[in-house]
Amino acid sequence: MPIDSAPINLTHHFLIAMPGLEDASFARSVVYLCEHSERGALGLIINKPTDITLKGLFDKVDLSLRREDLRAEPVFSGGPVQTERGFVLHEPMLMDSAETEESAYASTMTIPGGLEMTTSKDVLEALSTGAGPRRVLITLGYSSWGEGQLESELAENAWLTVGADLSVIFDTPVTERYDRALALLGLQAWMLSPEAGHA
């Protein structure tokens, strides 16, 4: 990589797996990147549901779930790291006081571009009472890349990237998210060759 090239920042972007990416965790996956810096990247897969529903997850942590709209929603496999931990991707929930931009929850990463990712149980407690963020996607586990790792995977044509569209995360049926993410680039799956092209 030339020394004068600016580092890319793909925070609030989708990574879309190319057909040649055969790693079981990531084949045909769409990853929402919560953070990307020179130190590495962290994201959540948004199109790999597990067989656990949100109601099932709440039962496991001894919370009721009063949000009828969420009970049957799946918990997603967010990636191969810390698969026993929950990660809640949600719309921003700011404290009521006007002078602070602080999130309403204890352990929250604010993602430039419009979402928050919370790992503390207080967000689940808020949802259990019928409150909390209106739109959520909950994963077990996350995806991460060390320093320079994602950049080298991009150079190997493992991923396509596109700015994130929240409607793909929250409004698109799970089975259509891969194709909808590709459509943001004007592509369809049949157009992609698993062979990497080098001019």
Radius of gyration: 17 Å
The CATH superfamily is known as: VC0467-like
List low-pLDDT spans. Answer: none
Number of strands: 10
User: Which assembly state applies to the chains in this document?
Assistant: single chain
Q: Sum up the overall morphology in one term.
A: globular
How many independent structural domains?
1
- Judged by helices, strands and strand pairing, the structural class is alpha+beta
- CATH topology call: VC0467-like
Number of distinct helices: 5
Distance between the termini: 17 Å
Mean of residue pLDDT values: 89
Content of β-strand: 25-35%
Order of helices and strands: EEEEHEEEEHEHEHH
Label the CATH architecture.
Answer: 3-Layer(aba) Sandwich
Q: What does this entry look like structurally?
A:
The chain has a single domain, classed as VC0467-like, CATH 3.40.1740. A hairpin with a 3-residue loop joins strand 7 and strand 8. The chain is of the alpha+beta class. The longest helix is centred in the N-terminal third of the chain and has 7 residues, at 54-60. The model has no long low-confidence stretch (mean pLDDT 89). Strands 1, 2, 3, 4, 5, 6, 7, 8, 9 and 10 form a ten-stranded mixed sheet that branches. Helices cover 17% and strands 31% of the residues.
How is the topology of this model organized?
Blueprint: E1 13-17, E2 30-37, E3 40-45, E4 49-53, H1 54-60, E5 74-77, E6 81-90, E7 108-111, E8 115-118, H2 122-128, E9 136-145, H3 149-155, E10 159-163, H4 166-170, H5 177-183
Parallel strand pairs: 5-9
Antiparallel strand pairs: 1-2, 1-10, 2-3, 3-9, 4-5, 6-8, 6-9, 7-8
